[in-house]
Write a structure and sequence with these properties.
By secondary structure, the protein is α/β, with parallel strands linked by helices. It has helices at 11-46, 55-68, 75-90, 106-117, 129-137, 244-254, and strands at 97-100, 122-125, 143-147, 165-171, 174-175, 185-190, 200-207, 221-228, 231-239, 260-267, 271-272. A hairpin with a 2-residue loop joins strand 8 and strand 9. The longest helix has 36 residues, at 11-46. The radius of gyration is 22 Å and the shape is elongated.
């Protein structure tokens, strides 16, 4: 049998090598699933609460993936592969439903949900973003997926609360040029209290006048806003290192302090998959 010039191996040998690699990958996947099951079993005894959605842990895993990635396989393919494994191993399929924002294109929402949460979780199309907030608040384990639009049809974030539905993640997390499932969105989950160690903090801010024009100059990103006859509601994002008082001062420096400011969640800063693997970006 002839040998191929690049590797010195025959085509049959190369195919056998692939079969051997596939077998090792399968064994490693089974070992990982077993290790995850042991973590799940040990969690209650450690005093920690077991959750089916751990965005901070997921973000750490994705950062490590981007840092070590090299080779011909596209990063987006590897990311999807790992996300599917993580969801399957952590029990996201155990009675967890993902409620989808009905105000966005359904096919885009389905693509986004399947890319990030695999095919195990139940997907539930909702009426609008407010319905998604209500469904998540009424459940102990369900998640919500809301598309980010500059101008919202309603201030759905008013329904977010410290002990109800909160913003926990922003998608896409690994930002790539021409990536699949690139619809900007927020992931909601219910919590018993606000998570205060996130890279980016999210606030419900309300002004009785116009939205201050220089928020970006103060490192504040307007994720979405809703204008009415009584003023402007906005969902804003800013560095999680700042206190609520700091945020009020930043808004005042931008033109006006809001009449109402509520902390409604936070997320890990997305990373640039096309540039420096260590580069995080978002409100600074």
């Amino acid at each position: 049998m002839s040998q191929l010039p690049d590797s010195g191996l025959s085509l049959a040998d190369l195919r056998k090598r692939i079969d051997d690699i596939d077998a090792r990958i399968h064994d490693a996947l089974m070992e990982r699933a077993q290790a995850e099951a042991e973590v799940n079993s040990a969690t209650p005894a450690s005093g920690e609460t077991r959750t089916v959605f751990s965005p901070e842990r997921d973000a750490d895993l994705m950062r490590q993936l981007v840092e070590r990635h090299k080779g011909e396989l596209p990063l987006a393919t590897v990311e999807h592969f790992w996300r599917d494994i993580i969801c399957a191993c952590t029990g996201l399929k155990e009675g967890t439903a993902i409620h989808l924002d009905g105000g966005a294109e359904l096919i885009e929402m389905l693509d986004l949900a399947r890319f990030y949460f695999g095919f195990s979780a139940e997907l539930v199309p909702g009426g609008d973003a407010a319905d998604v907030v209500g469904a998540v608040a009424a459940s102990r384990s369900d998640l919500g997926l809301i598309a980010l639009n500059d101008r919202a049809e309603l201030p759905w974030w008013r329904g977010l609360s410290e002990t109800g539905a909160q913003v926990r993640s922003r998608l896409p997390f690994v930002v790539l040029e021409d990536r699949p499932a690139d619809l900007p969105a927020l992931v909601l989950s219910r919590a018993d209290g606000l998570v205060d160690n996130t890279d980016v903090a999210v606030y419900d801010a309300r002004w009785s006048d116009l939205l201050p024009g220089k928020l970006m100059d103060q490192g504040i990103e307007v994720l979405s806003f809703f204008r009415s006859a009584s003023g402007v509601d906005a969902l804003i994002a800013i560095s999680g290192e700042l206190s609520e008082e700091d945020v009020l001062e930043s808004c005042a420096a931008a033109g006006a302090a809001p009449d109402i400011l509520r902390h409604v969640g936070g997320y890990a800063a997305p990373i640039d998959g096309d540039g420096d693997a260590d580069e995080a970006f978002g409100p600074e």
